Amino acid sequence: MSAELQNHLADEVAIQITNMNKWYGDFHVLRDINLTVQRGERIVIAGPSGSGKSTMIRCINRLEEHQKGQIVVDGTELSSDLKNIDKIRREVGMCFQHFNLFPHLTILENCTLAPMWVRKTPKKEAEELAMHFLEKVKIPDQANKYPGMLSGGQQQRVAIARSLCMQPRIMLFDEPTSALDPEMIKEVLDTMVTLADEGMTMLCVTHEMGFARQVADRVIFMDQGQIVEQNEPEEFFNNPKSDRTKLFLSQILGH
Amino acid sequence: MTTMIDPPKAAGFHISQLLYDTRYRSMTIQVIVFLLVMGLGAYLLNNTIINLAAADKDIDFGFLGNRAGYDINQLLIPYSSDSTHWRATIVGLLNTLLVAFLGCILATIIGVVAGVLRLSKNWLTAKIMSFYVESFRNIPVLLWILAFFAVLSEMDRKPRSFRGEDAVNNMWLWDSVAVTNRGTYIPAPIWGDGSALVVITFLLSLLGIWAYGKWSHRRFEATGQILPNFWYKLGIFIVPSLAVFFLLGRPIALSIPEIKGFNFSGGLHIRNSLLALWLALSFYTGSFIAEIVRSGILAISKGQTEAAAALGLRPSRTMNLVILPQALRIIIPPLISQYLNLTKNSSLALAVGYMDLRSTLGGTTLNTTGRELECMLLMMMVYLAVSLTISTFMNVYNNSVKLKER
Amino acid sequence: MKNSKSVAFVREGMIDQQPAPASQIGAVRWLKDNLFSSVLNSILTIISLLVIFWVLSGIVPWMFGGVWNASSLSECRDILNERYGNTHYACWAVLTERWQQLLFGFYPAEEIWRAVVAFVLMLVAIAPVLFESVPRKLLWVTIAFPFLMVWLVWGGPIWGPLLVALGFVLFYVSYVVLERKSSTLLALIGSLVIGLVWWMFCVGPLSEALGSALPIGDLERVESRVLGGFMICVIIGLSGIALSLPIGLILALGRQSNLWVVKAICVGFIEFIRGVPLITLLFTASLLLNYFLPPGTAFDLTLRVIIMVTLFSSAYMAEVIRGGLAALPKGQYEAADALGLDYWQSQRLIIMPQALKISIPGIVNTFIGLFKDTTLVMFIGIFDMLGLSNAIRANSAWNGINWELYIFIGLVFWICCFSMSQYSQWLERKLRTGHH
Where does the signal sequence lie (chain C) (predicted)? Predict the structure, then answer.
């Protein structure tokens, strides 16, 4: 395998997961996960709770450690090497279900923290960058407030802006709307749609099937720690193949 | 595809992996920390050895077998100045445990009463209890010990003032308890023949109460009937022991203190040092326990009471079945750590001359033998053992009541 | 009646608020609710009133009939006998005579202003730590205070404390410079080495040289052994708490760590310290510490006590901070990780600022405990207030006086500890409800 070809592949393939397995003690949470994500691809991962979907995307930036198999992100293998882990975390942004903004820092400080300390960007530059992304998520006027003063939807948008400030090439979303009140879900999804339209590589764990239909290139259905079905959204929703998928879809689309 | 991006896994071991590989990094750090700590330990030890050599001393616990040569004024086991230092240590330890044990009991009683009264609907009572709690816990316990000792030893109740027909001071509780400025005299039991049987019966009846509780609970589960448990239990508690006591012709008698000449004789003499230490530690710790009890009860949300009421439970049952089990879970861990504090604070016995562990082993023994290092080491280890025993109980309890949550 | 079947209803005029029935308000109502709501309650009220009356009738005349001016207990009793015919009254004169000693120990009288200045500075230095509304600029006073305090209390030329402070600046600057060049850990080690070299080898000679060349701010030296009273309690308590903060922090992190060697060492240390009474550690300080140090090192008892008290409170501090760490949601760690911050960065920037803030009430409570425990130093021959009260009693003029001294000491402690505990409760309430 020549280095050239590897680089070429790395340009095309954003994430390559091969035969990944993970256990919590005796419990086999992820079983033989194989997944290739192309650059610019938008993937929605669905599945019942406890199916391992969050665990899977948390493995991609090593918030969880996988025990078997291989994860390659942007041509860098996720191993026990700290330098690789740092490199991958710099390239991969993540949004959490509970936002996880830093409550003791202002919105602006939340956004400039990582660029300043990890990328060593000068403060002024980092602030300009932060304002740019805060404008993009449409809350530049809240920059000097603290997270506790914002609504849930606003907080999640700040969290997205915070990740974007590291200028990641891949974004992971771990149920970004499930802790939100219904009327706030739309503003967050709109932000995510804008992001998708700009060509960001995205992996979203979400129950928002409307969002999946609208932006996803591919929908992945997981159950009991394995990938059960994946397809383009139209096919996936209109013509599910597996019984488990059918059951799941009937449960969440039932009303 | 997978084979194409195979990582260079077999590339061998680089020295930089020690720092940058998560698998080895933790090892590296641990080895460094271990070496640093060991180094510090070795340095201190080396200094000690040099210093001991310079002072012409060694480390030897053999002195514990030598004759102690001093008296101890409160004995739970036989001891005389001819006994060994080891024996003196044990006597001291028992005295420490005695005051700690008595203190824990009294502190719990005071604390629970004060804590509950502080929540009382009666404004005046609640304020008095607040005053008690705030004044005791914001003033050093050492000051309280000294103050209690001063109260006891400066009272105008000299033993000789109890003398004669028209004595200035009187004994209390039907002439059985004499509180004097030289200590308090209380009746002491005299164990006659057959008293062992009475004690055994008493212990058996305790077992009986427990068995009865189990049985009545099972009966309740089976039939739904609720028995007046309290009265039955009280009966089991009293009747058999009393019956045996009288059947055997009252084997246990009481020795009542009596004024003879200028002092009391008979009964049990409780020294002011023990009394002051006991009361001060109890009232001081009691103020902390009161707060623990109060916040424990307050922490059980109103919702729980309302839910129980909505289910139709009566207030007394709500307390027993819903509030107390939950409140105890909150109360007991800090309560035990207060017991721990009380035990450690008992070392302040020094201030009033109570002969506890610190005063025998860490005091007279240390001074007469000149073995500072050994005595201090032994004393710390004993205190540590006592503390660890208590906190082990606490952990066992904590684990057994921990809420089962997902 | 036609409308009665319809569910439609429109209110035409709003009802104004009406006053409550007379039985629901007023003082009588309050008395009934709070003091006499039931038989049991009424009995409690009567018992309480009796207790209050009994206590006050004993204490009030004694207190307010006391004598404030006399030079000895016997003189005091003479005055009381003259005035009342008996001596059942307080003799506050001992306080008038000796209050300075109780507060400052044997500190030279003409230098007491220094102790007072240090005390006021301390209040200024603590204010920005405790209250967020105080201007942040005062934090500079906080940083400078330890060095100023040493200079003010112990005297000598200002150069010594100044150079030690300079060492911290050096440490910080070298850390910042090194961190740009290498990793955080290496920078920390490197700057620590630089700092230690400065403190151990440069400070001593330099301060001597500067002291003789430029004798600026040369206060008269005061020996440690004349420190005493309330002052020594504050010094020991405050330095114990301040110095134990960093150690406690490291211990808490170590105890949380998943490196088992580190964890075992930290747990062992914490449990050992928490398992033995403070008094045994104080005796260690006075009897044994010299054994553990290189032969010939002799430093004064106050310093040895401060070392031991620091070790003692660091174990308690570690537990408090551990509580603060445990109270932080796991998401904060994850977010810091996901942004690519390394362990020390996330601890310093994300975890510690929040955990320490949650811990302040606990830290204040630890301080209250420690402050009360400083009275124990009387057992190893340091004259704190209780030690001084013994010394005063040993003087033939005041032999036999107890209560006046105990009440004064108790009151001083009570005022300090009660206000601190009120503060920590206030902060706890604020933390529970407040956002920023």
Answer: none
Domains and CATH numbers, chain A: 3-253 (3.40.50.300)
Q: Tell me: do C160 and C238 sit in the same domain.
A: yes
Interchain CB contact of C132 with A (< 8 Å): no
Whether residues C315 and C253 fall in one domain:
yes
Q: Is residue C3 part of a domain?
A: no
> H/E element holding B373?
helix B372-401
The token pair that represents B70 in the structure block: 């001093």
Q: Containing domain of residue C48, as a range?
A: 30-92
**Residue of C414, C417, C421 for testing the chain B interface, max B β-carbons within 10 Å:** C414
| DSSP class of C226 | G
Q: Compute the distance between CA of residue C177 and CA of residue C190 in angstroms, rounded to an integer.
A: 10
8 Å CB contact of B376 and C280: yes
pTM of the model: 0.85
Instruction: Report the distance separating Cα B36 and Cα B31, nearest Å.
Output: 9
Where residue C8 falls (left for φ over 0; alpha for ψ -120 to 50; beta otherwise) is beta
C340 and A102 within 8 Å at the Cβ level: the answer is no
Domain count, chain C: 2
**What is the C-alpha separation between A155 and C435, in angstroms, rounded?**
14
Residue A72 forms beta bridges with which residues? Answer: A16, A77
> Which tokens sit at C314?
């660091």
Which of B24-33, B98-107, B210-219 ranks highest by mean pLDDT?
A: B98-107
Neighbors of chain A with 3 or more C-beta pairs under 8 Å: B, C
The sheet carrying A201-205 orders its strands as: A92-95, A170-174, A201-205, A42-46, A218-223, A226-231
Q: Which of B137, B143, B154 sits opposite C410 (nearest CB)?
A: B143
Q: Which domain holds residue B295?
A: 55-154+272-405
Residues 6+ apart with CB under 8 A from B126: B117, B118, B119, B120
* HSE-up of residue A56 (Cα within 13 Å, Cβ side): 33
Helix (H, G, I), strand (E, B) or coil at B40: helix
Q: Long-range contacts made by residues B17-26, C-beta under 8 angstroms, separation at least 24?
A: B17/A81, B19/A82, B20/A81, B20/A82, B20/A83, B21/A79, B21/A80, B21/A81, B21/A82, B22/A80, B22/A81, B22/A82, B22/A85, B23/A80, B25/A82, B26/C258, B26/C259
Cβ contact A117–C341 (<8 Å): yes
- Please state the rounded mean pLDDT for residues B377-396: 91
pLDDT score of B61 more than 90: no
> What gap in Å lies between CA C328 and CA A103, rounded to an integer?
11
* pLDDT for C363: 92
Q: What is the pLDDT of residue B191?
A: 79
- Residue B6 in this model has a pLDDT that exceeds 90: no
Q: Name the residue among B33, B44, B146 with its Cβ closest to that of C292.
A: B44
A32-81 pLDDT, tens digit each: 999 999 999 999 999 998 899 999 999 998 899 899 999 999 888 888 88
Pair of tokens at residue B231: 């009265």
Helix (H) or strand (E) holding B258: strand B258-260
Strands (E), B124-224: 178-180, 183-186, 188-191
Same domain, C88 and C175: no
d(CA B38, CA C261): 12
* C99 is a domain residue: no
pLDDT in tens, B150-165: 988 887 777 777 776 6
